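User: Quick sanity check before I run a bigger batch. Here is a single chain. Can you write out its predicted 3D structure?
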Amino acid sequence: MAVNSHNSQNRPTPNIQQRVEGILEEARINRREYFQLVTLFLSDLSVTEEERRLLNIVFDRLQNSQIQWGD
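Assistant: Done. Predicted structure follows.
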């Protein structure tokens, strides 16, 4: 039984998209935000493919030191 339609599976929710855009714009993430994003990423049922792609951008940039830690 599918909960989401095909279109909604491809579009990120505004909340996740806004959070990722804010992190990328500031090039800074705190540990609470990181924990929340990791939790979202690991929750397979609630994250669309596009949201997963956005989260991967944050994780990649963090790993490459393009995003700094800021608590």
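The chain has one domain: 13-69.

User: Great, the batch can go ahead then.
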